[in-house]
């Protein structure tokens, strides 16, 4: 197999590796020869993350990005030394968790060294008094959660990608799990961590419930997307596994009725662990057999925890739902969600039909949630080739929501898949910004959203770029993401 036979999508800023053998010898010296590969089959495996457009490219014989080396460090010192060496030689380094990111964050757009974190897979401590778990950051999400469940605990962080993502990836993309309305998002769950900075220095943030110790620097790395440091271990909050779980569902006449019900529940300081609102299109797709939900908006709730509190949460959830014209649909829709919640085959079925498909999650305050939803649907329905645009809402706060859009469409004859994909992304993001929302709720920026970062952050984007230069003056750590418009698109 010759990798040159494949068309490379991101090739413009590829680093020019002058002396491959010299770099290989040094990397072998640092991590050992068993922990390095330059084999085509390995390089091919690390050409992409789970960006859905990359499935289309695979079928067309194209690859997204191409690294020169894949390494599997076993110790923190390995990572420090590799970064020191990469700095000396100006070689790009891309941290890689499990590659389940969906915005191109782990794609080696400039080539260089992939640092796969999979050998950082140990649970270091469970502290039952403090309710914490400390683990290495390459650990697989399901392995961590299963281990905790066997001991009677949970982190409460259960992303749909639980089986295919790592702790380091969660922190780096500021992830949000399905039970986030009760347990919080990853930034609410992290209590301490250890990070290797781009120049190879190790820093750590103490495990503590809270501190008033000046600016909270660790926040830079929660959402740093592997551009500011490599996270090696972290301490998370844990909770006793819930004693009781109650499953509730209601169908509402409109999305606005469902928003009102949920907003009123949260105002009471009641936090069902799971709340999911499916718009009318997704309700008909997921719940065709529920008569009460026909042409309606389905909402499922899971209340869990202490038995007495769960009963109270249930009664307030029901009261607010019924006050907003909700019709009880029983437990079955929630059981159906539990059975199918990790099933994601739908998305990978699209590319063989030449359909460009993806999902985009955004955030909004309550007072413009409805506008955000409708303006995205309106703008996408006007875009040529769009065959579906639907949404569900699965992350909630007393102040607002995270809305998750799914779209599918067929490019015009003269367009490439990527051009059409970019057009869909930009149409959605533009509508969200115009409606007053934020461009990303939990999947991160990576390549796909970098064009919009200046618009999203305004002047503070320049401060962020200055911090990047300060920590990584040679721009070796995960280049081509967040700060750089790798798509080379323009905002119209
Ligand atoms: C089917 C499916 C469902 C999903 N569901 C959810 C969901 O419910 N909630 C959610 O939040 N996301 C979800 N995602 C997105 C994705 O799983 C998350 O972004 C996840 O956090 C990525 O973890 P990973 O280990 O796969 O990271 P990768 O994809 O390997 O990397 C993601 C980014 O983090 C960086 N990185 C990885 N490890 C480290 C480290 N140790 N230190 C520094 N940087 C690092 C990489 O360089 C890259 O920029 C889903 C994705 C898919 C495909």
Largest sheet: 7 strands, antiparallel
Task: Enumerate the spans where pLDDT stays under 50 for 5 or more consecutive residues.
Answer: none
Bin the helical content: 25-40%
Number of strands: 20
Bound molecules: flavin-adenine dinucleotide
Rounded radius of gyration (Å): 23 Å
Which class do the helix and strand fractions yield? alpha+beta
Query: Largest beta sheet: what is the strand line-up?
Result: 17-14-16-15-19-20-18
Give the overall silhouette. Answer: globular
Q: How would you explain this protein's 3D organization?
A:
The structure is a single chain. This protein is of the alpha+beta class. The chain is 33% helix and 22% strand. The protein has helices at residues 20-31, 40-45, 53-59, 76-89, 141-150, 167-172, 180-183, 186-189, 255-267, 280-286, 307-323, 332-340, 345-348, 369-382, 417-434, 453-457, 460-471, and strands spanning 7-8, 36-37, 62-63, 69-71, 93-96, 113-116, 123-127, 132-136, 153-154, 190-196, 202-205, 230-237, 239-240, 244-252, 274-278, 297-305, 327-328, 356-365, 386-397, 400-409. It has a seven-stranded antiparallel β-sheet with strand order 17-14-16-15-19-20-18, sandwiched between helices. Helix 1 packs antiparallel against helix 4 and helix 9 (255-267) packs antiparallel against helix 11 (307-323). The mean pLDDT is 96. The structure holds flavin-adenine dinucleotide. Flavin-adenine dinucleotide (FAD) binds next to strand 5, helix 6 and strand 12.
